[in-house]
Write a structure and sequence with these properties.
Layout (H helix, E strand, L loop, with lengths): L4 H11 L6 H13 L2 H17 L1 E2 L6 E2 L5 H4 L7 E5 L2 H10 L5 E4 L17 H10 L5 E4 L5 H14 L5 E4 L15 H9 L2 E2 L1
Helix pairs in contact: 1-2, 5-8
The structure holds zinc ion (ZN).
The site of zinc ion (ZN) has 8 residues, from α4.
């Protein structure tokens, strides 16, 4: 006996999400079957709006509904400093911490020879262009994750940026090796920013 077609489609869709195996996908699909119509409708429009309304900021690469994003537009933020992160979700983590008030740049990943990710696959060109055209920027903090790829990316960026006379620093203290910014608590992250070291 096969799943009714809409259920089969739903299972298939859930399985495309990271960390969702077949069994979990089945459980989620049948959960949706039992949800009330209103909740299902909210869920489906949230999915659709994510794709329809969001774009990447043309300056920093953050996910945004308006371009430039609210952070890039906010002139009250410290315009002298740019914090480089791997993903837009890392910005959310840093913002929650509330002790960093500079600008951001989202790489969209890290250099990874194994996965075939080279400099041209990341928002590196736009970062360099930004540094060249905006003389206000005096420091770049590299906040890639403390993984081998994150470290290699930090070193690569440092070699690229330093010759332009811009200070390059790296989040140092508190973040343990292999840890993601995403999972760091606010205290640790706050200490990591204030204790950053030059690379
Ligand atoms: Zn932006």
């Amino acid at each position: 006996m096969q799943y009714p077609e809409p259920v089969a489609k739903l299972i298939d869709s859930f399985m495309r999400l990271p960390g969702i195996g077949h069994k979990t996908a089945i459980r989620l699909a049948y959960f949706v079957v039992d949800m009330n119509a209103d909740d299902v409708s909210k869920f489906s429009s949230a999915l659709k709006e994510t794709k329809d309304k969001l774009r990447y900021c043309s300056i920093c690469g953050n996910l945004t509904e308006e371009d430039p994003c609210v952070i890039c537009k906010d002139k009250s933020r410290d315009q002298n400093i740019v914090l480089v992160v791997e993903q837009p979700k890392d910005i959310m983590v840093m913002e929650k911490m509330k002790s960093y008030h500079g600008l951001y740049h989202v790489l969209g990943g890290v250099l990874s020879p194994i996965e075939g990710t080279g400099p041209e696959d990341l928002n590196i060109k736009s970062l360099i262009k930004r540094l060249q055209t905006n003389s206000n920027i005096k420091e770049v903090i590299i906040a890639t994750n403390a993984t081998p790829e994150g470290e290699a990316t930090a070193m690569y960026l440092s070699r690229l940026i330093k010759p332009a006379g811009i200070k390059v620093t790296r989040l140092a203290h508190g973040l343990s090796v292999g840890s993601d910014i995403e999972y760091a608590d606010e205290m640790t992250l706050s200490r990591a920013v204030s204790g950053r070291t030059e690379i």
